[in-house]
Design brief:
Layout (H helix, E strand, L loop, with lengths): L7 H25 L10 E3 L2 E7 L6 E3 L2 E12 L5 E9 L5 H4 L8 E3 L2 E7 L9 E8 L4 E7 L10
Antiparallel strand pairs: 1-2, 2-4, 3-4, 4-7, 5-8, 6-7, 8-9
């Protein structure tokens, strides 16, 4: 018969395995019930009614060399297939379409149920910044709309 040495691992391996299983259940429960911030006000632009919703209240993060903030845009009116291209950026003014087309940051993608976007943003959000949505249809017409940023997105100054 083999003798097992009385080590920490041999004494507590069942407790550690049980803890790992409990943590998996906890994180699964958290992922089933995510908490999102409130959606912003719905605004109409052209044939569309759009409601933006940030995924979190964290500051913008660095993504492929560009600071971005993640949003979900819900289209309650209008057909998304009528949009040729649409971009979302955060700043004091909307970026020109020619500048936005140079990269893939800020472009809306998804389905008619919701469009996800990594909005181009400055490193620090302030009160003079707005969220700007630029939409171009298949006829080349551009429409721009903006939303004021809620106070919860601003970082406290040190």
């Amino acid at each position: 018969m083999a003798r097992i040495k009385n080590t920490i691992w041999n004494r507590d391996k069942y407790k550690i395995n049980g803890l790992v299983l409990v943590l998996v259940c906890y994180f699964l429960y958290q992922s089933l019930f995510p908490q999102f911030p409130d959606a912003w006000e719905t605004q109409a632009v052209g044939a569309f009614e759009i409601t933006p919703m940030p995924y979190d209240l964290d500051p913008p993060y660095l993504h492929d060399g560009t600071y971005t903030k993640d949003f979900l845009l819900l289209f309650s009116k209008g057909q998304v297939n009528k949009i040729r291209q649409a971009y979302l950026n955060i700043g004091t003014e909307p970026l020109p379409l020619e500048t936005l087309q140079m990269g893939d940051a800020g472009i809306l993608h998804g389905s008619q149920h919701g469009q996800e976007v990594h909005a181009i943003a400055p490193e620090v959000l302030t009160a003079e910044h707005k969220a700007w949505l630029t939409i171009e249809n298949w006829q080349g017409q551009q429409k721009v709309i903006s939303w004021k940023l809620p106070n919860a997105l601003f970082q406290p100054s040190n």
